[in-house]
Amino acid sequence: MFTTTLTPTETPFLTLAWTSGAKNIITSNTVNITGPEYEGRITLFPSTGSLELRSLTLDDAGEYSVVIVPAGEKVSNVLVTSSSTDLVEFSGSVSLSCSASGSSLSFLWLNGSSEVTASDRVQLTDGGSSLTIITVTRFDQGPFRCSVSSPVSTGTSDPVNLSISYGPENINLILSPPQGYFAVGSDISLTCSVGSRPPAQFKWFLNGDQLPDTGSELRLMNVQMSQSGNYSCQAFNSKTLRSQTSQPSAITVLGASFTPSTNLPVEGTSVSLACEASGSVFTRNWIKDGSYLTPTDNMILSDNNRVLTFNTVNRKDSGEYFCQISNPVSSDEFTLIVHAYNGPENVQIKGPNKINIKGTLKLTCSAESTPSARFTWFFNGREIPNNSAEYIKEEVELSDSGNYICQAWNNITERTSSSVVHGLTVTGTCLTVIIFIGLI
């Protein structure tokens, strides 16, 4: 007699199965199926699942087991409701509630493919059916799903996404060309970048006074000396009601000019500097690095020293050039900054080749480039939405193992160069535990 400890019930079990080793003794579902060698020798007690075995033989020696699945209602109508879906980072909390039809229910929350567990910011209450996140961050946007299980079945809700506003932060003002000194008539572009959701609104300032311009880019066309000064941009987020102002970028407009119209000397190209002045000019002298300039095979002085031409600009030609102009009445000195724009070259990635799972990954890309290069990252051949020199990812997963490439681009030379492949291995163990509950 094999007697279970179950309390007798009038509700039939959903499934009941007795086995001995690999042999089926009896399986009870909608009908009973008895093993041939046990015909006429067994009696099943359906209210408790107990079993009587008679007329024992030597072949009946061994281990006996029973699996019983009680009857119940299948899980259905799994639904997640949220107290809010529009939140501000660091200043809001949200509660998610999961409901379902069924009996003996258990609840599991998922953020994407990861299980949500309790922590200082995360609370699981009401038997796990309620999830509260305190002081939300941008990484709490979801999608959130609720998985509900019963002894009979499992059901999962539709995803719920949260819109979490943040920023502005990490504001950066980029001057192009980046030299800071410009000739009268030059065109200048200032670009303001910032991290913000939703996208920030921009204001521009010159020496602290607001300009009428808006948008992330300020274009100064045909600049004059009166436009010299300190430029800054301010970003404002209408959701977070926060703002951030950049460090000022100084622009100095000088009374000399590049000719022809280009003011972007790229390494390997030809460029001319013109020393202009109104009135009668008697002498012009060019000075570089504190010494009077002596023409070489690479440079020519023409038109009574008015024009300094570089046949092929190279890096050693970069520097600060002075043009001294004088007549019997007055004298003046103009400054021209020459950058032999070059690169990018020697693109490299620095960072770990191995990292533990859930660790923080930081890769840094560098390149020899004038002006500074802009960067694009790739992972296993797929572009990563990141344009900075650093790629940072918190709490890496095993799926982050692979090959990383950084591509550098110089917006002046319009040249692109890529790094060698940087391999990364994420180490650690992802453990899945499957629990079978049986009644023996």
UniProtKB/TrEMBL annotation:
The keyword Glycoprotein applies. It comes from the Eukaryota. Pfam families: I-set (PF07679), Ig_2 (PF13895), Ig_3 (PF13927). Residues 70-163, 168-246, 248-335, 344-422 form the Ig-like domain. SUPFAM superfamilies: Immunoglobulin (SSF48726). PANTHER family: CARCINOEMBRYONIC ANTIGEN-RELATED CELL ADHESION MOLECULE 5-RELATED, CARCINOEMBRYONIC ANTIGEN-RELATED CELL ADHESION MOLECULE 8. Coiled coil: none annotated. It comes from Oreochromis aureus (Israeli tilapia). The keyword Glycoprotein applies. Keywords: Disulfide bond, Glycoprotein, Immunoglobulin domain, Signal. This is Ig-like domain-containing protein. SMART domains: IG, IGc2.
